[in-house]
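S1.2 Input.
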Amino acid sequence: MRQLSIVGGALRYEFSMQMHRGSVWVVLLALSVVAVFASFYNAQHGWDRILSLIPKEAVIDWTVSTNWSLSLGFGLLLADRLPRNKRTKMNELFGAFSGSPGARLLGKYLGSMLGTAVPILLCYLVGLVYIIVRLQSVQDLWLALPAFLAVTIPSLIFVGAFSLACPAVLWVPLYQFLFIGYYFWGISFYAVGFSGIPTLCGTVLTSGGVFRAGGFFGVQYDLFIHATLAEAIASTVLMFACAAIALFALWGYLAWQRMQA
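S1.3 Output.
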């Protein structure tokens, strides 16, 4: 119970910190504009593109678009959590408290992720309202929650773990630059179009969510035709497994740093 209270305390602190950061809201709300255009607009149909979709397709397409667009800002915004605590001497303050450093790290991870995910959830809900208004239907609205949990949450858990762990050993601007490169190489649909360049985008290791959208909900994308249930499950498991490995490595690195101090 003691460890759970430490996790809860760190979670509440990090959640509050992220919720009160103006940059979190500005960056994610700006990227939500990208998500809106990606899902609801194209040159052929204009803003009436959504009218060419059935409600189920509209909900899943919107889920993939928010995940694809906003995970970029999510990763960039989490990159300074550990370095900021070091700059503000908060690590020394936390170290003076009793309790497991691992529990504090888990609480930091969960709290910073949840706080940063709030604008993403709000953007998602606004898009769902738009879908209801334009399609005049709530027929498949029940899909919104499982779609968000299956498509978006694994990606945020994956991106969040690496964005917390990697800046422990990398300069934050360097990590952010590399993360942007990863985003266009490993998530962006456009990466597949560059023949001869290997990319994660066409594999279950991509965090874009298209394999989970196709395998779990049957909404296929031109670049990822016939994603199967097995591929969707594999994609989900890999997201969680890679996140766990990154956090475990971070825990070990921080323990080693404490031993060297």
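S1.4 Remarks. DSSP finds ten helices and no strands in the chain.
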